[in-house]
Design goal:
This is Electron transfer flavoprotein subunit alpha/FixB family protein. Belongs to the ETF alpha-subunit/FixB family. By secondary structure, the chain is of the alpha/beta class. It contains eleven helices and 17 strands. The protein folds into two domains: 189 residues, HUPs (Rossmann fold); 125 residues, Rossmann fold. The strands form four sheets. It has a seven-stranded parallel beta sheet with strand order 7-11-6-3-4-5-12, sandwiched between helices. The protein has a five-stranded parallel beta sheet with strand order 14-13-15-16-17. A three-stranded antiparallel beta sheet has the order 8-9-10, with no helix packed on it. The longest helix is centred in the last third of the chain and has 25 residues.
Length: 410
């Protein structure tokens, strides 16, 4: 099975530890960019790269005393950085010289390995959750971190989930030079598409770099120091005044957080769903499967075979001829895992497969494989969910006034 990730031949260079590479092969089994570069990088750092051979401990990027700093800022999602943020951090680590440290500023809780991602220092701000929108306070926190470490350059992923907006706000507030949608970068220059992506605009490295996806190979042949810094951000008088103004007169506030509106998971497009349960030919009880999806709050997907059999509509099909999804959790019930289906889930973070065949292709892709009958597993999960729901309801009833004695006597 060919698991190499397709690369746009028109795309610009990709940054690796060996410098800029115009053509970078995909890595077999990993779905990432840069196997050829990875082998060259491993050889350059004295690390073996042979099938079945355990990789040696990676060396530190630098042990010299830092004289300069590069700052990378990004939002965490459930304690981790997404692929785009990891690429941005890798860009700073690859560009930094021996006397430059890479400082990672994380908005939200972070439980990952900062050193393995290339960071020398980690600053965690758990008070900034991605479920809340506080642009003024995040901007103040970024400005305070910049004032503390005086970085030569600042890097943020150019996305639509907060980082790109924060970078543009900082550039405007600090009157800093900025390059957005950067698709090519090294220690001397950045480049971006112009004229409807028919040509490139190139300039020297600005103060602020907003990096586009897939411009950097994120797997590094070295590690950073990974020092966790106890740095606490205190809200300034300006941000406190703005927060107070928003509380007292929300209709006149510049920015007001309206919270997150919860909607039915079935209404979410598969391309945007974060939790998907998918059915294949091994799912015979569709009603029980749909009941489980509703209980878990997951969107529903299906394999091509299940769609062709009329069990699900065509818009639920996942795969090369259907939808390509990027869910954090993808549970496949009774799906063998044809190459077309695997192509549709290649960007999912965690894949769980429920299948009777331990040698099915989906088992090679899955992070966890449950060797069991799909119908029995779905029924067991529905029973467990019902039992948990009943237990929760009983506990709530016992806490109601006038119900305590009745519950105890029962």
């Amino acid at each position: 099975m060919n698991t190499l990730k397709r690369i746009d031949p028109r795309r610009p260079f990709t940054v690796t530890a060996q410098g800029l590479r115009r053509i970078t092969l995909g890595s077999a089994g990993g779905g990432g960019v840069g196997a050829a570069a990875g082998e060259a990088n491993s050889a350059a750092f004295g690390m073996p790269h042979a099938a079945g051979q355990r990789e040696q401990t990676k060396p530190r990027r630098t042990t010299a005393s830092p004289q300069h700093a590069l700052l990378v800022a990004a939002h965490a999602d459930r304690g981790a950085l997404d692929e785009h943020a990891r690429q941005t951090l890798a860009a700073a680590a690859l560009i930094a010289d021996a006397h430059t440290e890479v400082v990672l500023l994380v908005f939200g809780e972070f439980s990952g390995d900062a050193a393995a991602l290339g960071a020398d220092k980690l600053i965690e701000l758990p008070q900034f959750d991605r479920r809340s929108y506080a642009p003024a306070e995040e901007l103040a926190a970024l400005a305070a971190c910049v004032a503390t470490y005086a970085p030569v350059h600042i890097f943020l992923p150019d996305n639509a989930t907060g980082d790109g907006d924060l970078g543009r706000r900082y550039a405007a507030a600090a009157n800093a030079s900025v390059a957005t949608h950067v698709v090519e970068i090294d220690a001397a220059h950045v480049a971006t598409y112009v004229h409807a992506q028919t040509s490139f605009a190139v300039r020297a490295l600005p103060e602020l770099v907003l990096l586009a996806p897939n411009a950097v190979y994120p797997k590094l042949p070295f590690v950073g120091a990974g020092e966790r810094v106890a740095w606490r951000f205190e809200r300034s008088a300006d941000t406190q005044a703005q927060a107070q103004a928003q509380t007292q007169a929300p209709q006149r506030a510049v920015v007001r957080d309206l919270g997150i509106e919860e909607i039915d998971a079935a209404q979410v497009a598969l391309e945007e769903a974060d939790f998907i349960v998918s059915a294949g030919n091994g799912v015979s009880d569709v009603a029980a499967f749909e009941r489980l999806a509703a209980t878990l709050g997951a969107a529903i997907g299906a394999s091509r075979v299940a769609v062709d059999d009329g069990k699900f509509t065509r818009d639920k099909q996942i795969g090369a001829t259907g939808k390509t999804v990027e869910a954090s959790v993808y549970i496949a019930f009774g799906i063998s895992g044809a190459v077309q289906h695997l192509q549709g889930i290649k960007d999912c973070r965690h894949v769980i497969a429920v299948n009777l065949d331990a040698s099915a292709p989906i088992a090679k892709r899955a992070n966890l494989t449950v060797i069991a009958d799909a119908r029995e597993t779905i029924a067991a999960l529905n029973d467990a969910a019902a039992a948990a729901r009943d237990a929760r309801g009983t506990s709530a009833a016992l806490l109601q006034p006038g119900k305590l004695a009745e519950g105890v006597l029962a």
